[in-house]
Structures are given as structure tokens and as C-alpha cells.
Amino acid sequence: MWNCSPWALLPPVYSACTAAGLWVVYFVAVEHEQIEPLNSQHRRNGSRYPPYISVAGNFPPASCIFSEVMNLAAFVGLIIAVLRYLQLKHTILKPWLNIGTLLTFAIGCFGMTLVGNFQILTDHLMHNLGTLMTFGLGALFCWLQSFITLRVNLRNEGRKAGILRVLLSGAVTACMMVRSVLMFQDFHMPAARCQWALVMFFLIFISTFAIEFRHNRFDAVCTDNPGRPVALSETDAEVFRNEPDQL
């Protein structure tokens, strides 16, 4: 019998769909011979580029898919971050930490839209700014959430979930650092593989929020302003009685 909240499905479904969308972009770019396959041993072959995610999403038709994937990922990712904020709102002892974590991820999500809408070979500056915001603030978000998980310890699951998130945060940070070093040394094929691993580790991290979300319900409530109710006049009441079909 299903005892978990349906909201527990949101993080893993988000991660799976985002990963699938990015891999579709990759395979479309490979099919059109715009980038090298990830298993290629050569940095470049003729007109093909290294298989960075941004480069795979630079050329049509893959660029159209890439923009949609990044925009939707930013939007739904922000929803998950807001739900996580609401979940911790009444349990965390330092509200500023919860607010700061939400703002960090919100800015990172904005960076995702820059990555998706400004192709790297068209607007190098804006694209790299978005990349820095996405990866840098994304890694910071991972570490902050790992710390919060260990400190809050929701349902006595904080230790296990926190250790898992610390390991994933370390993997994200390590991939980001190794990628930067490899790119600086012009080892573009290994750097591209590190970038793909970084994104997959980050999506796995987001999917772990299902651990806590399975205990919660999130409801949107709309209430009237607590003022004096307005009574219908006799004329208005007569209209409603005589012409009910107009409602």
C-alpha cells in the first residue's frame, strides 16, 4: 500500500527527465556529426567539437531541445527548492540559512536559463556567466543542504541522508575542479566527460530530496480577506432569482 506522499516523486522524476533531455541533446548532436562521441579518443576530428554539454546544445536542431530542457529544468528546480524551504521553515534554528540556501539555488536556476538561451559560440560571455552561476552556486547549494540535513535530522533520517549528500557534494565539487584543470591544459575530451559526470551527480543529489518529501504534503490555500461580508441588495437578489441560467 502506498504510504508516501506523492510529492516524493517530484525530485527523482525531475532528475530523470532533465538527464534524459540532456542525453537527447547529446545524441542529436552526435547524429548530426557536430560533436565527438564521449568514448572517442580524439579531441577533435575535422569539424567536430569536443562533447561539452554547452557545445552539444549550440547547433540546431539540438539547440532548440537544449533551450527547452534548461528552461524547464530551471523552473521545476526552483519549485523543488521552494518546497524544500517550506519543509524546513519551522524546523531549522537559523532561518537565514534556509533563506540563503533558497536564494543561492534561485540565482543558480537563473544561470541555467542563461546557459540555455545564450549559446556558447554565439554569446560566449553571457553563456559562461550562466555556467559559473549554475555550477558554482549549484555546488554551494549542495554543501549547504548537506549541512542542513545533518543538523535538522528530520524523522531521524538526517544522518543517512546527510552522509549520502556529503558524498555527492564532494563528487560534484571534485568533478568541477578536475574539469577546470583539464580544460586549462587543453585536455578537452576528459574535461567533457567530467562535465557530464558533474551534471549527473548534481541531478542525483536533487533526487535525494524524495527521502524527506515522502513525509510531507504541500497544499496551496486561497482564503478570502477577513473583512465584513458584502450582502446582496434586494435588486441583485431578485436578478439572481429570476435569471439563474446566466450564472
Automatic annotation (TrEMBL):
Recorded superkingdom: Eukaryota
Chief place where the protein resides: membrane
List the subcellular locations: Endomembrane system
Name of protein: CWH43-like N-terminal domain-containing protein
Q: Please give the organism.
A: Scophthalmus maximus (Turbot)
Pfam families reported in the protein's UniProt record: Frag1 (PF10277)
What region holds the CWH43-like N-terminal domain? 6-215
Q: What Gene Ontology cellular component terms go with this record?
A: endomembrane system; plasma membrane
Ranges annotated as spanning the membrane: 7-29, 69-86, 98-120, 132-150, 162-184, 196-213
Query: Any signal peptide, and if so, which residues?
Result: none
The text of the family note is:
Belongs to the DRAM/TMEM150 family.
Keyword field: Membrane, Transmembrane, Transmembrane helix
Query: Membrane topology for this entry?
Result: Multi-pass membrane protein
